[in-house]
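User: Hi! I have a protein structure encoded as tokens and I'd like to know what sequence might fold into it. I'm fairly new to this, so please keep things simple.
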């Protein structure tokens, strides 16, 4: 008989295979950066990882804030010059194509609206020519946006970046009080977003310890990105 601990470990193995290059976008508060950081940590178990912080819009939730954690896990962090200071401007002194050749996985965390996506548009020719590329749009049912508003933001981001999203991520959460019921209540909403956007739902982010049984592929995440007033 297989031990229950083995079964628990087995549940955490995703069938979904991440591409060599993953761009993660979504509106403010969707859980986009938390996914980017968790994904970088997960993929670092499989190969070399570089994460690029292109979020030049939001000063509070940025992949660049996890410099120490990335260093501990041998993850390369690249961000615009002056990132994390009051002089933060979109100065991109790096070569995404070169980074994609140097590392097994490249993750790009993009600003949370169409303005932030303009920064991504600088590299649209490169991304649109890549075969092993994914652009994921992250949404959160509990951010008080309607399905139509979420889809409109998606369309605006695609127009600004000149890059088509390839799939959706349901990252619906209520911060520290997220539980199994929080996730289950978001599933019908996620299906509606997928239907209206005509994009596939790639997976649903769930907290470590999630015990629900849902149809969607699931990606276990730790709550690493917290509010400014939290420890």
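Assistant: Happy to help. Inverse folding works backwards from shape to sequence: for each of the 231 positions I chose a residue that suits the local structure. Here it is:
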């Amino acid at each position: 008989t297989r031990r229950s601990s083995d079964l628990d470990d087995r549940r955490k193995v995703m069938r979904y295979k991440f591409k060599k290059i993953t761009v993660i976008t979504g509106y403010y508060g969707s859980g986009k950066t938390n996914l980017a950081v968790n994904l970088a940590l997960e993929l670092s178990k499989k190969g070399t990882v570089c994460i690029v912080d292109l979020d030049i819009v939001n000063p509070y939730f940025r992949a660049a804030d996890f410099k120490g954690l990335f260093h501990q896990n041998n993850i390369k962090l690249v961000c615009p010059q002056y990132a994390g200071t009051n002089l933060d401007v979109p100065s991109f002194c790096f070569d995404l194509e070169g980074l994609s050749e140097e590392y097994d996985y490249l993750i790009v965390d993009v600003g949370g609206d169409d303005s932030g996506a303009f920064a991504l548009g600088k590299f649209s020719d490169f991304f649109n020519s890549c075969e092993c590329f994914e652009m994921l749009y992250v949404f959160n049912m509990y951010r008080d946006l309607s399905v139509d508003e979420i889809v409109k933001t998606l369309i605006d981001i695609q127009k600004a970046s000149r890059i088509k999203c390839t799939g959706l991520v349901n990252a619906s959460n209520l911060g520290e009080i997220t539980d199994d019921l929080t996730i289950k209540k978001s599933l019908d909403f996620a299906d509606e977003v997928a239907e209206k956007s005509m994009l596939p739902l790639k997976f649903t982010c769930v907290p470590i310890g999630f015990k629900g049984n849902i149809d969607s592929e699931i990606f276990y995440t730790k709550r690493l990105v917290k509010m400014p007033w939290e420890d």
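A useful reference point when you look it over: The chain is about 35% helix and 20% strand. Feel free to ask if any position seems puzzling.
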